[in-house]
Design goal:
The protein has about 130 residues and is mainly β. Helix content is about 0%, strand content about 50%.
């Protein structure tokens, strides 16, 4: 029943900023932890951020590749999660996906970014970063 749609992908210059949106339909997004992932051709999906459900504190987590540059937030009144991306690099070029985790598992005080529990995925939005 839950459906996710990403939007906001675009071409941006190196060092630029972009905000992606993950909009939900068919269910209340506040029930879920939301992960952001990206994928380039020939490689698997790389986790880049997560935010837990409000009931577990909307805790956020980032890998070293995005920490300090990317910021995830949620507006559950609008049934939407955002990913603000700053200081973009060519290596950030990828198709970006959001995904939902109904389990909302908390490990070491934060959400997890690699889990079989991310079971609902959007179709992705393309981000291209170049000079």
């Amino acid at each position: 029943q839950l459906q996710l749609v990403e939007s906001g992908g675009a071409w941006v210059q190196v060092g630029g900023s972009l905000r992606l949106s993950c909009s939900a339909a068919g269910a209340t997004l506040a029930r879920f932890a939301i992960g952001w992932f990206r994928q380039v051709p020939g490689k698997g999906r790389e986790p880049i951020s997560c935010i837990s459900a409000p009931t577990s504190g909307s805790r956020t987590n980032y890998p070293d590749s995005t920490k300090g540059r990317f910021s995830v937030s949620r507006d559950d009144a609008k049934n939407t999660v955002f990913l603000q991306m700053n200081g973009l690099k060519p290596d950030d070029s990828a198709v970006y996906y959001c995904a939902a985790d109904a389990t909302d598992w908390i490990v070491n005080g934060t959400c997890i970014m690699t889990s079989q529990d991310y079971t609902v995925w959007g179709q992705g939005t393309l981000v291209t970063v170049s000079s």
